[in-house]
Amino acid sequence: xxxxxxxxxxxxxxxxxxxxxxxxxxxxxxxxxxxxxxxxxxxxxxxxxxxxxxxxxxxxxxxxxxxxxxxxxxxxxxxxxxxxxxxxxxxxxxxxxxxxxxxxxxxxxxxxxxxxxxxxxxxxxxxxxxxxxxxxxxxxxxxxxxxxxxxxxxxxxxxxxxxxxxxxxxxxxxxxxxxxxxxxxxxxxxxxxxxxxxxxxxxxxxxxxxxxxxxxxxxxxxxxxxxxxxxxxxxxx
Length: 237
Ligand SMILES: C[S@@+](CC[C@H](N)C(=O)[O-])C[C@H]1O[C@@H](n2cnc3c(N)ncnc32)[C@H](O)[C@@H]1O
Hints:
- There is one protein chain.
- By secondary structure, this protein is an alpha/beta fold.
- The chain has 10 helices and 6 strands, in the order ααβαβαβαβααβαααβ.
- The protein has helices at residues 6-15, 24-30, 49-57, 70-76, 110-120, 142-145, 159-166, 184-190, 197-200, 204-218; strands at 39-43, 62-66, 95-101, 121-131, 168-181, 225-236.
- Helix 1 crosses helix 4 (70-76).
- The longest helix is centred in the C-terminal third of the chain and has 15 residues, at 204-218.
- Residues 1-2, 4, 43-46, 49-50, 67-69, 72, 84-85, 101-103, 106-107 line the site of S-adenosylmethionine.
- S-adenosylmethionine (SAM) binds next to helix 3.
């Protein structure tokens, strides 16, 4: 598991957190699962981006956050439980939805995590993932400027590796758009090597060359930066 430290936690807030407006397609995509009265577990909640989003979008839903990194918990400024995917610190059959956003590539022992997910989910509960999968990376614009970052894809699982590894069935799979930044210039100014698994795979030279390409494009392209990650909904089998 990658341990996010204090520098990464601070950088994550600058580089990876997206405005709630930029995430509005994600709101629409997950709305069917976030019904009033339900309890949602945000597993690997990081700096709390989605804890805050869900509180605003779905006020009738109770959100419990579990996060292993003390620095990420502290950077969030929110109350989060200490725990991780192998030891989810909530009681048996206590949640209706487990939300896992850009975390599953950090998990190596999927069967153990699958057993934990089945333990904490109520009957009929679902796992809702937001992720980059190895075989479906066309929606990530970063590769245009940092082509060497595709090397890091080898550490990302495929959809079937995740579903089969966890022992769940695929119910829904589709790319969902997000406005990652209002412009390439904004993206360039918030870019942080340490905040992203893909960028961390680059040498300093590769990173600087990519940043130069990004700045060059930012001088002429003024539109918003739109990326796609996948929504994957899993049911217990
Ligand atoms: C890329 S961040 C995503 C944070 C948040 N889910 C989001 O979408 O903004 C990855 C997070 O996963 C956490 N993490 C890493 N390994 C984990 C594990 N085995 N179980 C739970 N969380 C884990 C990290 O500490 C980090 O906060």
